[in-house]
Amino acid sequence: MAHSVSPPGAAPGNHGDIQLPARLRTGHREPVLIRREAARDIAVIHAITAAAFSRPGQSPGQDPPEAGLVGELRASPAWLPHLSLVAVTAADEVIGHVLCTRGHAGTVPVLALGPLTVRPDRQRRGVGSALMHAILGAADALGEPLVALLGEPAYYRRFGFRPAADYQITPPRPGWHLHFQVRVLTAYQPWMHGMFAYPEPFDRT
Ligand SMILES: CC(C)(COP(=O)(O)OP(=O)(O)OC[C@H]1O[C@@H](n2cnc3c(N)ncnc32)[C@H](O)[C@@H]1OP(=O)(O)O)[C@@H](O)C(=O)NCCC(=O)NCCS
């Protein structure tokens, strides 16, 4: 049976009932804080990335490539320590992670976002959204012009991502065009376009 509430300040029954969206009826928002990654978080980030990207049929003990990618990025010149963020509970337990590393659109230094990860038992509670809003705000505050990613448009369009082709930014692989997206930030200018280049560790994933 659907739950319903009256609008704030309304006399019950005067204006009819308001139907809440399904996710507000059935789920709950996870209260999280977002902070920079610390050295003590590295093993947990690896574990939640491996869990979130695990695939059916994966051999036991074998991590998905995304888990190794984060470690390779951390060791690469493209690593930006101020743009690796974790979502933590009130007890400082890490339950999500997002990062941006240095990519290029043509010759312009821009950001490559990913992987974005939420621990499987904490998904669909707003943690991924909190991480995305935090990292986009941080990137904008740092004067970065744009963020590019490869992902599901149905998820990322809510954060302002649009097809990269709208900005004349082409993916490194032509087959990616439907999923390759860009979010422009305040410092973006229309002359910033060209072929997108990911940091080198992505080439091995
Ligand atoms: C994608 C991911 C980070 C989202 O985190 P989350 O905390 O579950 O996201 P939120 O709670 O903020 O948002 C949930 C919404 O996103 C939607 N969503 C999640 N993954 C989606 C996808 N691949 N495509 C479309 N929508 C998606 C859910 O349906 C839900 O929609 P609703 O709010 O309308 O019900 C998380 O599901 C995850 O870690 N997945 C595995 C790793 C992954 O695929 N990462 C992204 C690629 S780098």
Q: Could you describe the 3D structure shown?
A:
The strands form two sheets. Strands 3, 4, 5, 6, 7, 8, 9, 10 and 11 form a nine-stranded mixed sheet that branches. A two-stranded antiparallel ribbon has the order 1-2. The protein has five helices and eleven strands. Helix 4 links the parallel strand 6 (108-118) and strand 7. The radius of gyration is 19 Å and the shape is globular. Helix 2 runs antiparallel to helix 3 (65-74). It has helices at 22-26, 42-52, 65-74, 127-141, 153-156, and strands spanning 4-5, 18-19, 33-36, 84-88, 94-105, 108-118, 146-150, 162-163, 169-170, 180-184, 194-197. The chain is α+β, with helices and mostly antiparallel strands and 205 residues long. It is 22% helix and 26% strand. Coenzyme A is lined by residues 23, 52-53, 114-118, 123-129, 151-152, 154-155. Coenzyme A binds at residues 23, 52-53, 114-118, 123-129, 151-152, 154-155.
Q: Total helix count?
A: 5
Can you tell me the overall shape?
A: globular
Q: What is the N-to-C order of secondary-structure elements (H for helix, E for strand)?
A: EEHEHHEEEHEHEEEE
Q: Roughly what percent helix? A: 10-25%
Instruction: Please report the total strand number as a whole number.
Output: 11
Largest sheet: 9 strands, mixed
Strand content: 25-35%
Task: Point out poorly predicted stretches.
Answer: 1-18, 22-26
Radius of gyration over all CA atoms, rounded: 19 Å
Structural class: alpha+beta
* Average pLDDT over all residues: 89
Bound small molecules, by name, code or SMILES, are:
coenzyme A
Distance between the termini: 46 Å
